Fold this sequence. Notes:
The chain is α/β, with parallel strands linked by helices. It is built from 8 helices and 10 strands. The chain has a single domain (14-299), classed as Zn peptidases (Aminopeptidase), CATH 3.40.630.10.
Amino acid sequence: MSYPIGTPGIPWGDAEKLAWFNSRDVKRSYAGEVLSRIDALKAQFNWQQYGALSLDAAKFPLWAAKNNWQPGLPCALVTGGVHGYETSGVQGALDFLEHRAKDYQGRVNLLVAPCVSPWAYEMIHRWNPKAVDPNRSFVENSPAEESAALMALVADQGVQFGLHIDLHETTDSDETEFRPALAARDGKDYEPDGIPDGFYLVGDTENPQPEFQRFVIAAVEKVTHIAPPDSDGKIIGSEVVQHGVINYPLHKLGLCASITGAKLTTTTEVYPDSPKATAEECNAAQVAAVCAALDYLLTQN
């Protein structure tokens, strides 16, 4: 599969990245679908604007919500929309704030960043405006301002988080757009892969926490189906270590779930293009995963 930008085998330079940026079209509204829901929740949480995208600071403010923090309670971070095109990560985080976050007041100190990459949300794309993947950029001197802003927010809290759950999706467009674009950007051959049908989790190779992952999967399985392994016993090229769970080296890859150093970390992945799931079901699966992760955290404290 050839990609319409660049020359096969040659990594993109500034001209190709600009051509890619100029080929993007707005497909939905951050203000209409995200900021409007945040505005409706302003009275229920302590909201902090922790930055804004330099492309258009007025259009793309970055917001995070805190409940009423109390000394001595465990702290948990929930993030969505690191990949802006992954809709249920954003809408699931907002659904959690609207319907379930109140259940944890006085039990867990919550910090929720529902849409880390708002430009990508509008474009329905994986990358930021500079053709950088924010979820490979949670590193020192990050090349992605979205990632740098979130890391600064977490550091400013001055606490040790016990939990971080990062909400994602795996979509058919991974194969039709994003992986071909990645291969073109990096001057590599595109190698097709399959898309798992169902929900799965990505734990940390260096800190897998299998009982925690199992607890979350069991809760989500009541809401939606869990992705089976492929014929090689893998999901997206990684060995399935238990039902619905694979592991990545989170810190080495610069993934969002590595930023707190929490004992309990996981990345959710739902499949919104499945014929067996609806958008509402995917959002509900994200909420179920967040609640299960928080419930498990409470058993450890």
